[in-house]
Amino acid sequence: MYGAPRIHVDLREIDGVRVGRKRVARLMRAAGLAGVSRRKGCRTTVSDRQVAAASDLVQRQFTTAEPNRVWTADITYVPTWQGFVYLAVVLDVFSRRIVGWAMADHMRTELVTDALAMAIHQRRPDAGVIHHSDRGSSPSRRGLDR
User: Fold this and answer.
1) pTM of structure
2) Distance between CA atoms of 84 and 80, rounded to whole angstroms?
3) What would the pLDDT profile of 101-122 be if each residue is shown by its tens digit?
4) The domain 42-139 is classified under which CATH number: 3.90.550.10, 3.40.50.300, 3.40.50.700, 3.30.420.10?
5) Which PROSITE patterns does its entry note (predicted)?
6) Separation CA 113–CA 133 (nearest Å)
7) pLDDT of amino acid 48
8) What angle do CA 98, 111, 39 make, to 5 degrees?
9) 130-133 and 97-104: which strand pairing?
């Protein structure tokens, strides 16, 4: 269960033992030891293999010469004491700045469309902007718990 920070603290409490936290981490890595996390993960994207993927207009080239040409989007989650909060962001590839975002306690369509609407309202791009997101859909929380 213990990771390098906790082992380092325990070793410091022993008289005569002087060791750095990074050395403890390096020795643990060399021995193949790692701390165990009790935190449950959350899957936010499940690809539907039966649906044809949209064409990749970006072709994995995440650079552009000017703003408002390519926007990328994604959803992540933030664990809180009350449960998960989901965050959708839209990022301008040129400046690497978040141009739109939305938070909610669900992963329904309006979470993503609210983030995109904020980006459009903030930046007012022309019709040539490419909005790129990962392939997949987000399952319900109930489906994740099974």
Assistant:
1) 0.60
2) 6
3) 999 998 888 999 999 999 999 9
4) 3.30.420.10
5) INTEGRASE (PS50994)
6) 12
7) 66
8) 85
9) unpaired
